[in-house]
Amino acid sequence: MIDIPSNRVSATISLGPSGTDPFNLEVANEAIYFTNQGAGTLAVIDPKSHQVVKTVTLGDSPYGVAVS
User: Which residue among 20, 41, 49, 53 sits deepest, i.e. has the most Cβ atoms within 10 Å of its Cβ?
Assistant: First the structure.
């Protein structure tokens, strides 16, 4: 996470082991959603706690995310 006013990294979030390959993200509904191509998953992050709160298995190489 980046603190924009200070232009500094305020937190780092692990999305998985090496090879997870985070690819695309969407911010919606007070959460951050990342597709992980290498792992075939979607990670849901709580931006307040800086924690992955859910990981959903999607299949091979998810390329995008849309939240409604």
Answer: 41
